[in-house]
Amino acid sequence: MDVQRWLVRQEVHWASLEKLLHQAEKNGIKTLSARDIRQLSSLYRLASADLARAQTRQLGIGVTDYLQDLVRRGYSQVYQGRQRQDGQEIIRFYQQGFPQTVQASWAYILAAVLIFGLGIYMGWCYTWQDPAFMQLVIPEHIIRLVQEEGKLWMGSIVGVEPLASSQIMTNNISVTLSALAGGIFAGLGTLFILWYNGLHIGAIATLVGQHNLAYPFWAFVFPHGALELPAIFLSGAAGLLLGQALIFPGRRSRLLALKQQGQLAAQLMFGVVPMLVIAGLIEGFFSPNPAIPDGLKYLVGIILLVALLLYCFWPLPQSNPTPGP
């Protein structure tokens, strides 16, 4: 290789890269045009290859140091700038994209709430009419503790909060993912999971109500339930979106309908996961804490629920839901 000729030829590219880097560092990479950004990326890759060649052929400290500096600066603009942009996209999604997706999916969310509510009603009625029914959906040790000792079972969480919180998060995420995956079975799996969880809540509500434990029970449930139950409804809506695409694709092909509805479902799930993490922390550390008055627990639950509803349903500028992170 003719080193001098190679240096002369490549110095033109290095100078162009340095000029673009200087502009990006001084005014920000957003001031560059799309063409300049593409050129910057191309010249950065070229400089990286030239650096490797210079090191291999030992072209001298001056050339190597110069190229190392160019490559370092180029990396900062090309990749770290992209990371900052990705971070901004995530923030923008949770600021506007997720609420827009919720509002666009309101009919499916309402359907999920109604199915869950039907399960609660049936669990309540069946347990009142046939006390033996509760044994089918409620663990025996919980029934025995409530009926024989007049106590709730949440005290077992106290003292093992970190472990309990982790297990609660894992269980809740498993339930929501199952509700989503149930949509693949034409939505029937989603409907069953929503209905069964409602049935379980209805039976437990009847059990604690029959033994005058409703007030402390709902004081425990309300703080984390203000996020956990809406998360279940949203994941149920996501599953129903998939089921609707499979059964009623309209004029679209089923594959196209599933792709489009799947994008909405994925965006709903991007919002569900943080809700479940927060709910798990509350359920592990706040809800079972006997030192916190029940009235305060109800207040926290009300505040969280109102805040969530305002966040999700506050009117926003009309636009297509923002793609998830």
TrEMBL record:
<feature type="transmembrane region" description="Helical">
    <location>
        <begin position="106"/>
        <end position="126"/>
    </location>
</feature>
<feature type="transmembrane region" description="Helical">
    <location>
        <begin position="298"/>
        <end position="316"/>
    </location>
</feature>
<protein>
    <submittedName>
        <fullName>Stage II sporulation protein M</fullName>
    </submittedName>
</protein>
<keyword id="KW-0812">Transmembrane</keyword>
<feature type="transmembrane region" description="Helical">
    <location>
        <begin position="175"/>
        <end position="197"/>
    </location>
</feature>
<feature type="transmembrane region" description="Helical">
    <location>
        <begin position="264"/>
        <end position="286"/>
    </location>
</feature>
<dbReference type="Pfam" id="PF01944">
    <property type="entry name" value="SpoIIM"/>
</dbReference>
<dbReference type="InterPro" id="IPR002798">
    <property type="entry name" value="SpoIIM-like"/>
</dbReference>
<keyword id="KW-0472">Membrane</keyword>
<feature type="transmembrane region" description="Helical">
    <location>
        <begin position="217"/>
        <end position="243"/>
    </location>
</feature>
<keyword id="KW-1133">Transmembrane helix</keyword>
